[in-house]
Amino acid sequence: MKTAKELFPDVIGQSQAKLAITDWYNFEKQPLLLYGSSGYGKTKLAEDLKCKTIDTTQMRGDRLNTILKPIKEAEDGDILFFDEIHSLPGKVLEGLYKIIDKGTFYDTELCMDLALPDVRFIFATNILDKLPEAFVNRCRFVELQEYSSEELTQIIHQMYPDIQKTAINSIVKASKGVPRTALSLSKSIIA
C-alpha cells in the first residue's frame, strides 16, 4: 500500500486531491475523473502515478475504435490517463460505458464481446458540462483546488531556486493562482 508522499513526492499543494487519489490507487477499480482548471496539475499527478497518457484531442472520428486502440495495446495492471476527455464525441464516451462496466468490447467482425486488458482509467477535464452525466457517475470524482500564494511560491522556488523573492511575489500575483502560468512567467524571467 502506497502513501500520498510516496506517490506524489514533489507535488506541492492539492493535499485533498492527493489523499483521494492515493485512496483510489490503493483500493479502487472504478475510473477516476480529475477536474480542475487548466494548469492545475492534472497531468503531473498522472505522471507521478506512471500512467500511460492518451491525448484525446488528437483523436478524430466518432467511432469507438478511436479510443479502443490504446486500451487494447495496454497491459494488465496499466493505468491509462485520458487527458481532455471532454474533447471526445458523446457517442465515443457512451461506448466507454461498456468498457468501464464490463471490461469488454463488441467486435463487429466476430459478432461477440472480447475481453480487454485489466486496466484502470483516469480521465481529466476542465469542462464538466460536455460530459454525459452517466459517464461522470461511473467515475470517482476528484476536484483540484485553487493554489494559495504560499504554494505557488514553493512551486516556483522548487523549479527555479535562483529567482529573487521580489520577482516571485510579482509572478505569483500575475499568475492568478495557476501553477503552469507561474512557471511559464518564471521561465521567461530567467531567459
Describe the structure.
- The chain is of the alpha/beta class and 191 residues long.
- The chain is built from nine helices and seven strands; from the N terminus they run ααβαβαβαβββαβααα.
- Strands 2-3-6-1-7 form a five-stranded parallel sheet, covered by helices on one side. The chain has a two-stranded antiparallel sheet with strand order 4-5.
- Helix 4 links the parallel strand 2 and strand 3 (79-83).
- It is elongated.
- It starts with a helix and ends with a helix.
- 28% of the residues are buried.
- The model has no long low-confidence stretch (mean pLDDT 89).
Strand line-up across the major sheet: 2-3-6-1-7
Annotation, overall tally of beta strands: 7
Provide the β-strand percentage band: 15-25%
The proportion of residues forming helix, as a percent range, comes to 40-55%
The helix-strand sequence is HHEHEHEHEEEHEHHH
Distance between the termini: 42 Å
Note poorly predicted spans: none
Shape: elongated
Strand-pairing-aware structural class: alpha/beta
pLDDT averaged over residues: 89
- The gyration radius over C-alpha positions equals 19 Å
Characterize the biggest β-sheet.
Answer: 5 strands, parallel
Number of alpha- plus pi-helical segments: 9
